[in-house]
Amino acid sequence: MEREEMENCLDHFKHTRYDGVTAHFADDVTLQYHNDFAPGAQPGKIIYGKDEFIETCKALHESFDIYPDIEEFISGWKYNTLITRMEFIAKKDAELIDGIVEKGKAAVVDVFVFFDLSFDGKFQNIRIAPYNITYPEGDVRHALK
């Protein structure tokens, strides 16, 4: 996968066109999170398959408009690595990782994403690891796109 293809995939995610995202998934895809973007200490979570991914994303998009921006993308034969900055704009007061984001406010989350690829180049195992969160005041960058 090249960077342009990853940008297209993230655009599908941003606009809730989940079929455009899952078109890159192997049939037996798994997604592993350190948590489900909810606050507090909790065990890791594993999502199995395209349908469970879509359900999880729909729930997240009910509370937030999400604007991903690629910081770094490394493509390889068997693995891809993505560092992305994601802006979560709350549609209502909603929980996210370490607290409540008030309606209309933003949280910016820096995320490492590691993709193991199947032999046909589809995402087979995806590991998602948020590592930094900030709560900016004023205008947020999503207005640029």
What does this entry look like structurally?
This protein is an alpha+beta fold and 145 residues long. It has one domain (3-137): Nuclear Transport Factor 2, Chain: A (Roll). It is 22% helix and 46% strand. It has three helices and eight strands. A six-stranded mixed β-sheet has the order 2-1-8-7-4-3, with helices on one face. Strands 5-6 form a two-stranded antiparallel sheet. It is globular. The chain starts with a helix and ends in an 11-residue tail after the last strand.
- C-alpha Rg, in Å? 15 Å
Helix/strand structural class? alpha+beta
What's the story with the biggest beta sheet?
6 strands, mixed
User: Can you give the helix content as a percent range?
Assistant: 10-25%
CATH top level is Alpha Beta
Q: In the residues, how many domains can be counted?
A: 1
**How many distinct beta strands?**
8
Shape: globular
In the CATH hierarchy, what is the architecture at level 2?
Roll
**Number of DSSP helical runs:** 3
**Main sheet strand line-up:** 2-1-8-7-4-3
CATH topology: Nuclear Transport Factor 2, Chain: A
| Beta content | over 45%
Average predicted local confidence, pLDDT: 87
Helix-strand blueprint:
Blueprint lengths: L2 H12 L3 H5 L2 E9 L11 E4 H15 E12 L3 E12 L3 E3 L2 E3 L4 E12 L5 E12 L11
Features of this protein?
145 residues, alpha+beta, Nuclear Transport Factor 2, Chain: A, two-stranded antiparallel ribbon, 22% helix
